[in-house]
Amino acid sequence: MLELSIQDVQVDNQLIGTTQPFMLYVTPLSNENEVIETGPAVQVNAVKSPSKSALTNIYKHLMVTAQRFTVQIEEKLLLKLLSFFGYDQAESEVEKYDENLHEKTAEQGGTPTRYYFENLKISIPQIKLSVFTSNKLPLDLKALKSTLGFPLIRFEDAVINLDPFTRVHPYETKEFIINDILKHFQEELLSQAARILGSVDFLGNPMGLLNDVSEGVTGLIKYGNVGGLIRNVTHGVSNSAAKFAGTLSDGLGKTMDNRHQSEREYIRYHAATSGEHLVAGIHGLAHGIIGGLTSVITSTVEGVKTEGGVSGFISGLGKGLVGTVTKPVAGALDFASETAQAVRDTATLSGPRTQAQRVRRPRCCTGPQGLLPRYSESQAEGQEQLFKLTDNIQDEFFIAVENIDSYCVLISSKAVYFLKSGDYIDREAIFLEVKYDDLYHCLVSKDHGKVYVQVTKKAASTSSGVSIPGPSHQKPMVHVKSEVLAVKLSQEINYAKSLYYEQQLMLRLSENQEQLELDC
């Protein structure tokens, strides 16, 4: 006999800088008339009976019951997971793998084990599904997306009610039962296609509006709750307005330069409460107006940098002229969308859109040797600090962090940063920054009984400013509380410096070569 209960289930999105921090969590209470569910998130109950045959497993019953879940699928994360599990591998590799699998099964031979259930039931009553598309994808993920054969459409909070999978007296192999379960829930999802289509953003989420109005009317009829009706109708109308305006704004965003679009997304998607949405709307409007006024200059400069020559100048100038109109309009739509979301969240019983809290920061996926390290909260926090300092530019990766009494030392693949301690980290917190191009070596120094980390910079010629071999007289020192920690810091900094110079000697494919490979 097996009785298993899992009180809570949550899967955090581990992408850095993601706008959707959760992949899966138990759906919170969204309306005051709902009955509070106090049971576990997942419950498994199984009773196995003895069997006289080694090829037969007998179960009196197997029941799996889950609460309502919210699933948020981010396009970039989905593509990365597909790539990780080998979806984009060559067909020859897939065929070879399948052939080996069949050969191994044939060699083993014999009759497969079968499972008998007097009662088999799997119940997932409701899923609240959202899909968030990405405006910018790396080249490898774009290539993978083109092989999927179907585009992802952005929608939010599509309520999907699923009938339970129930079988009485099945006597089948494990593979057959698993396929039967998958087929059942696939058919259930397909039967809800109209509900999903009614939740898409470009239609203004009409199903969400209908659900809000119906909930309000139900509360009025059953409980005489007039306030609930007003709140639900306000929530539904403002939510539809926010979705529609946001879709128009995203469409205009495709005509903008990458930097402006990244700044827009950061402003829009990092608001959680109604007050933050209102502030984000004002910032988005100001950002659009300023972007429109400076569009010709910034886009022309970016065109010359990226494409070069006269063609880059003309291309950048054209984008700049278009941006002069589209950026302020997009800013106004952002303001309308965020204001509507502020009204929506004010009318929501549960306050912010989700009540879940992130359990884990995005993990550090690459160690100094290029291997996947064990999860470390301090490393995850250090990586987050690094991307705040570098404005989410991910060509500089995290190596190590050491927290000392009044400051911390952040070691990256390009530089070492000495930062003042504080709740919020930005570039103003840096009191010493040394790039490895300017670093000669790092030593442990002692003076009057105190221990210091001495960072010696390279000597530079006074005329040209170009670094020449040998140390300079610039040797900033930072006090460290113990010699052991000072030795560890100096070793980590010198090791990161040696890694940096190794990277400089590596041959890399140019962007043009990578594009040619993708086109082949």
UniProtKB/TrEMBL annotation:
It comes from the Eukaryota. Residues 359-461 form the Intermembrane lipid transfer protein VPS13-like C-terminal domain. Pfam families: VPS13_C. Coiled coil: none annotated. InterPro entries: VPS13 (IPR026847), VPS13-like_C (IPR056748). GO terms for biological process: mitochondrion organization; protein retention in Golgi apparatus; protein targeting to vacuole. This is Intermembrane lipid transfer protein VPS13-like C-terminal domain-containing protein. It comes from Marmota monax (Woodchuck).
